[in-house]
Amino acid sequence: MKRRTALFTTLFLIFITRPVFSLGGTVDYTPAFSLNPVNDGIELTTGVLLSGSALVLDKFVHMKENHYDPADWNPNDIPSMDYFFMQDYSKPLHIVGTGTMILSMFTPAMFAALPSEEWLTVGTMYAETMLIANGIKEWLKLVVYRARPYMYFDGYPQDKVEEGDWNCSFPSGHTTMAFAGAAFTTMLFCQYFPDSDWKYAVAGTSFGIAALTGALRIASGNHFVTDVFTGAIIGTVCGIAVPYFHTKSFYSKFEKRNGPDLNVTPMGINLSFRF
How many CB atoms lie within 10 A of CB 227? Predict the structure, then answer.
């Protein structure tokens, strides 16, 4: 399965990277993003604190109780839309859904085709995106007690109960990370190549894989529809917002547009005005 996932990932990246290269083998792009010590310090710190604290509380403090009592989970309490689509557990679909999530998270690898001076910027933004998205969904899993759909069927996986994963249905983590990767890829491609005819193909393919991940999480009995919708929203917002906070249009909001500007230099004092 791992070899197949790696093969499909490679083939997809070859396909999606084609429009990035010109006939001469060089990349024609528009520099659209830049790093800023203050901005990136805030975003990286936020992501690390969110993901790190959730990990500590889950794995070491055991903040969430792991006690399953069937009487606590009445199917009649499930919203009608969630009830209609709920399924029992399917391990094959679970595995395939994990594969599509990995594929979606790997889509930003296409930007390795950019000049090397862009790699640090893209890599930093992607790390921030994934840390923040992961931290948000992990904290929600910690504070929201919701049994997974397969717990309402006979023959639910006992190992999931022993691991304490059975009551972490909300939101869908696979869907969150898949949509974060898809939104990030789409946002960067549209900014780096604003005039490319491939924008819609890249967006459609990226979000298509993410949507397939969400559908598989429902079909495999791991999540309800509302879990998947919430994960898709979290991932998409993070995948778009983090890169946006690195654009010139965002930084321009903090530039001084008028008034005096006083600078002290070894040569003296320089006073200038902006209009």
Answer: 29
pLDDT tens-digit map of 28-46? 888 999 999 999 999 999 9
88-91 long-range Cβ contacts below 8 angstroms, 24+ apart? 88/149, 88/150, 88/153, 88/154, 88/155, 88/156, 88/221, 89/150, 89/153, 89/155, 89/156, 89/157, 89/220, 89/221, 89/222, 90/219, 90/220, 90/221, 91/157, 91/220
What is d(CA 188, CA 77) in angstroms, rounded to the nearest whole number? 42
> What is the reported pTM?
0.86
Spatial neighbors of 100 by CB under 8 A, at least 6 apart, are: 178, 209, 212, 213, 216
**Taking a C-beta distance cutoff of 8 angstroms, is the pair 176, 247 a contact?**
no
In the numeric block, which tokens belong to residue 114? 């950019």
CA distance readout (Å), 233 to 89, 137, 191: 24, 11, 21
Q: How far is CA 36 from CA 83, 150, 248, in A?
A: 47, 46, 11
* Rg (the chain; Cα; Å): 22
Handedness of CA 95, 96, 98, 102 (dihedral sign): positive
CA atoms within 13 A on the CB side of 87: 16
pLDDT of residue 24: 39
Structure tokens of 106? 């790997």
CB of 180 closer than 8 Å to CB of 129: yes
The angle formed by the CA atoms of residues 201, 234 and 62, to the nearest 5 degrees, is: 135
